[in-house]
Amino acid sequence: MGPPWWQAKFRGCGYRITIAREVILNTLAKTEDHLSAEDIYNHIHTKHPNIGLTTIYRTLDVLTNLGLVYRFDFGDKRARYELAEGPKGAHHHHHLVCTGCNRVVDYTDFIDAEVRLLQEIEQVLSKKYGFKITNHLIQFYGLCSRCQADG
User: Fold this and answer.
1) To the nearest 10°, the Cα dihedral for 48, 52, 58, 63?
2) Measured between alpha carbons, how far is 142 from 145 in angstroms, rounded to an integer?
3) 69, 70, 102, 108 — which has fewest CB within 10 A?
4) Local confidence pLDDT in tens for the 151 residues of the chain
């Protein structure tokens, strides 16, 4: 197995791969969760006590600006992060965010009609605003089945 996909992106942007950057990227690569900076700190603190929370925030800003990490706001006043792509390339998905329990579901099983609808929306917006769309992020907010049953 070769080096992680993100190493080439670092070299292409002229950035060094620091220990903090590598540790944070590896932490995000090992989880399906949307981690906050504090969550990342709690995951790595025992093994890397010299990487503080301030370093994690700064590093996440750099990784986000490089397009290696996506930053999300799910309405709980804590930024959450995930890798922009996995080892097999881009992993496009949308999010279903429960406003009751704050659970986030990655929605990936698109049907053809949904794909066509999104392509059409992108084409209309591109033409209307003269804007070249390269990516999109969609988050749906509502109540999950458990929160609906509790209410």
Assistant:
1) 20
2) 10
3) 108
4) 545 666 667 666 777 788 899 899 989 888 888 899 999 999 999 999 999 999 999 999 999 888 888 888 877 788 889 887 654 445 567 778 888 888 888 777 777 888 788 888 889 999 999 998 877 778 788 899 999 888 6
Q: Is beta strand 94-98 parallel, antiparallel or unpaired with respect to 139-142? A: parallel
Residue given tokens 């609808």 in the structure block? 117
Identity of the residue numbered 78: R
Query: How far apart (Å, rounded) are the C-alpha atoms in residues 125 and 120?
Result: 9
How far CA 87 is from CA of 28, 95, 112, in Å, comes to 12, 20, 25
Query: Are residues 80 and 74 in contact, defined by beta-carbon separation less than 8 angstroms?
Result: yes
Q: Is 91 helix (H, G, I), strand (E, B) or coil?
A: coil
Alpha-carbon separation of residue 95 from 16, 40, 61, 82 (angstroms): 32, 20, 21, 12
Domains, the chain, in order of start with CATH, read 1-87 (1.10.10.10), 92-151 (3.30.1490.190)
Determine if the pTM surpasses 0.90. no
Q: How far is CA 1 from the centre of its chain?
A: 24
